[in-house]
Design goal:
Layout lengths: L4 H4 L31 E5 L8 E4 L4 E4 L8 E3 L5 E3 L9 E8 L4 E7 L1 H4 L10 E7 L5 E6 L12 E6 L5 E5 L4 E5 L5 E6 L7 E8 L3 E9 L5 E10 L7 E2 L13 E3 L5 E5 L7 E8 L8 E16 L5 E5 L9 E7 L2
Antiparallel strand pairs: 1-23, 2-3, 3-4, 4-5, 6-7, 7-8, 8-9, 10-11, 11-12, 12-13, 14-15, 15-16, 16-17, 18-19, 19-20, 20-21, 21-22, 22-23
Amino acid sequence: MKKSFIQLAVISAISILTTACYTTDTLKVEKSSALELPSSVTIKGIALNPEGIEYNKNKHTFLLSSLNAAPVVQVNLDGTYKAFTSGEAFPMSTAGLQIDYKRDRLLVAAFNGLELMDNKPQTKGASHLRIYNLTTGVLEQDIDLSSLAPKANAYFANDVAVDNEGNVYISDWYANLIYKVDLSGKKSIFWKNNSGIEGGPNGLDFHANGHLLVSLIKVSNKGLYTDYGLVKIPLNDPKSAINVKIPKSAFSGFDGMVITQNGDVVGVTNSQKSPGGNMLISLYSKDNWNSANVVNTKDITASTTVAITPQNENFVINQDFTDNFKKSWKIEKIKF
């Protein structure tokens, strides 16, 4: 969910990959929800620069987005991979991913990374929601969101969530707001950040009690979080959003975050010692997210976000914030 401008600055070729560089090898695995997943999966030979990760329980595969504007890739448990998405009229950088099993959709936060990095003040990028068929990977809808906020300084669609009715919510880290797209494709601005926190909306997820939880972070030129918070936004009254009270001594903001099956939050945070997300933490609330406390922490290799499997296992996608064009990436299981 979620790199600062300084972390993205090395992106100079928006279409670094073509489908010709993918292996089409597949791994046959038993169709069982109790499948034991490996402790790590290494992907080699692809300058993907993955930022978002999802576990597809239908195929027992991982899906990874690409800041380098490659297709979303499907990764088997042995590390082989292939292009998953297709049908786009033009390539875009992709960040957050969300599977909507009920409607057989893969929801993708997409943005124009090349424009963000061209150092031209007249170009400020674009934010899109791209909706793919979860079974085939074919693009079904491509919705331009940034046109809703023409006065924004820049656009960075960062993460995506879906509620029980199929409404999709997309955070725009740079435009400092959240978009909403309903099942008919109607788009609107759902929430503008008036929380008092300087950081923009980054990671977000839908809570079954009828609200969004949204991470706000601001990142310094050293890659450290300087202003951050967690906001609870009721779906039926977004103007009544509140800042979740969390002891600052234990919480320093989230990059990517996920709400678990039991209603807790697991997310990647910055330890304030080095750039990137280098700690996985979990939050628990006993008052419906008016406040929360940190209940678990685990040091991790620098990562951006986390995927949680049906067995409540946490998987992060490791990052290298010094080389966005490296060709070896690791998905790692994290146990608290």
